[in-house]
Amino acid sequence: MAKTLDKVDVVTVGVGWTGGIVAAECAKAGLKVVGLERGRKRGTEDYLRIHDEYRYAIRYELMQDLSKETITFRNTRKERALPMRQMGSFLLGEGLGGSGTHWNGWTFRFLPYDFEIKSQTEKKYGKNKIKEGFQLQDWGITYDEIEPYYDQFEKTAGISGEANPLGGKRKNEYPTPPMKMTPILEKFKKATTDKGYNPYMMPSGNLSETYKNPDGETIYACQYCGFCERFGCEYGAKSTPEVTVVPTAVKTGNFEVRTNSNVVEVLKQGDKVTGVRYIDTLTKEEFIQPAETVVLTSYVLNNAKLLMISDIGTPYDPDTGRGTLGKNYCYQINAGATGFFDEQMNTFMGAGALGMYMDDFNGDNFDHSKEDFLHGAGIWIVQSGTRPISSNPVPPDVPLWGEEFKKASIHYYTRTLFVGGQGATLPHRENYLSLDTTYKDAFGLPLLQMTYNFTDQDRALHQFATDRSAEIIKEMGAKEVVPSNAISDYDIVPYQTTHNTGGTIMGSDPDTSVVNNYLQHWDADNLFVVGAGNFPHNSGYNPTGTVGALAYRCAEGVIKYSKNGGSLV
């Protein structure tokens, strides 16, 4: 029998960036908030002497336990979906801070084109440019409308950067200057500038200087140790939820974090949700947490699964194209080229977002009239600190074992660079999320099923971005250039990117979206769902900056709802 607890104003399911932002803003406004996090408590003090590549980067210490919860995967509806038994294509975070703890810190704004992609594409190229089967739609919000929330997130996180010359207009500069311009980045800057492109320093959540944010939280200066992605920061120098928004929420006295609390159901009566049911993962006790407002702030896949299990919303049907829950699942393509150089470079030093980016081939910043794809890719180089277990680049004519491999691996460890192309993905009617009918998690609930494959659009963009990357690294002085292999079918391994999006998409019409532009559910006005699952497509950037902006928009909506009730649009 579940124990019913005292009712609160707001309960968040997950305490990462989105849950932390919603909690901080609502608690500052005087609302009583409970944050339920199924992982354990953790913070900067837990990351002293964390430079253990095997434990964290290879064996995924900070990630979700797939023996308890995973997904099933298939390329097409004709195939049998099988469980993902170990981390592969993407990494699911778990614990206080969520994926915001072990991220690299790349913090971009999407382009104005992204938010109105369907209408702008049709206006410029005509309706026939969008190929059959693709489900592009506008987001129900414009860049100008979301810009203040981007600004708010960047100030909270202290983002270090400089303005994107091809991006949307900014009200303010970044709160801290860009990171160091290293000799490696100078190579990229010169090569791209010589070719007439517009490179800029990557907006970074690894801070260039010590910074106190508007809430009074201090984030320290990056030490360039090279242990960011898949690691927590031992210096408190990476903008993460547990050093920014979570302490802010706690200080109000209106916020309680409950770790080891796995939510298994959102409770609903009529057209309102009444709270959530969760299980203490240590004691196995079951609780009901009533709340005036429920906010789903977990990872993309978990938000969608929880709505499906709770029977809230209409599941997407690929046969008819109707339904919205699970629709428009998207990923990204990772193109690029490796360059082998004669001179040694300090590749082992760096930071997660110490890099340069250019958007000359991103969004609609170039003419697509003669291209057989839409959107594009951001072209980048990053000096994140290559680590010896996972970084053994050798030219293709070198054996992958034995004495010759060992010798070449040591030689090229400091003589190899990679220029990448982070490419957008567009929603296709055959790529979606649903519940698996065979496999269950540790709590007896169906696993989430992913049906996904690369499209011809993805393959064409991947080749285009690879070619541009190879030209740039050749211009940088590489003696040998090895382009990335062409992509065929998507596979759940190896690791590619953790930029999963869609499934709980936003929009202006309940027939084509799950939530409105305040991230308020169309079917229950006291339920909000926020995260990268709200993206109707994925762009040529990392999602965190946009997720943070949407979380501030969501928090504003929750506060408005607490005062007036009803639909916010």
UniProtKB/TrEMBL annotation:
Keywords: FAD, Flavoprotein, Oxidoreductase. Residues 427-551 form the Glucose-methanol-choline oxidoreductase C-terminal domain. It comes from Siminovitchia thermophila. InterPro entries: FAD/NAD-bd_sf, GMC_OxRdtase_N, GMC_OxRtase_C. Its EC number is 1.1.99.3. It is an enzyme of class 1 (oxidoreductase). This is Gluconate 2-dehydrogenase alpha chain. The keyword Membrane does not apply. It holds the Pfam family GMC_oxred_N. GO terms for molecular function: gluconate 2-dehydrogenase (acceptor) activity. The keyword Transit peptide does not apply. Coiled coil: none annotated. Belongs to the GMC oxidoreductase family. Residues 220-328 form the Glucose-methanol-choline oxidoreductase N-terminal domain.
